[in-house]
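Re: the pair you flagged

First of the two:
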Amino acid sequence: MSTTRSTAAGKVLEVLSAFDREHPSQTLSEIAQRTGLALSTTHRVVAELADWGALERAEDGSWHVGLRLW
């Protein structure tokens, strides 16, 4: 585990960095797999980011970068 991921801010950055041109929309499981975070941790971080508007959930259940970051 990197030192960055051991902090709350590091985990947030890990989740946000999972999104790129090749992966603009992902399921929670895909985010967890790409970040290496536990699914429960990913769920908690994604929920907080969604509450703030940084991530949005599509009707198919996938997540993408929210308007607040744009």
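Second of the two:
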Amino acid sequence: MNIEIKKSEKPVIYEDAKKLMEERLLNVDLNKSNELIWTLEHPDIYTAGTSYSESDILDKSIKILETNRGGKITYHGPGQLICYFVIDLKKRKKDIRNFISIIEKTIIETLNFFNIKSFSDKENIGIWYNDNKKTKKVAAIGVRISKWIAYHGFSINICNNLEKYNAIIPCGIKDKGVTNLKQIKDQDYKELDKKLVEIFISNLNK
């Protein structure tokens, strides 16, 4: 499969990223473009997926951007790696659960490479880490499927400001925390995006 790999060095405005993905989706559907895996960062923004509720917003003064991805409310900002994609499931298995499993496996294997043991949870989508008996989310997943093409993506907290999550109930889950890789293990994560893309492509091609 020909997948274009794109990496943005400067932060990308959320709406601009969404527009690019939606245009790419139409072209992939028409066989005019290759699929895409795109790593980037967003400037500070709170986004709400299709299943959020008002009660997930604790600080009513924050601005929320409603979006068409799955999931509830989350925060994006500097120090968080975003991996977006436009992947044609018609060329693979037309199985959404299987595709989500590929994403989960990709994140877990990437973190494993950095000696961090994380896990997925059937009840709560995302990737989790056990920190002294409290389970904390380290990666969030929000996918949308249109014309059997999967887009939007997932985020991994590397060294982002965790206080930003105090304004919301992240992903609608009250009884669990949020963490980042720097808190779990203070080491160099410069190569993480490269490793992630390599593992993602390998899992997609299995």
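Residues 3-204 form a domain with the BirA Bifunctional Protein; domain 2 fold (CATH 3.30.930.10).

-B.
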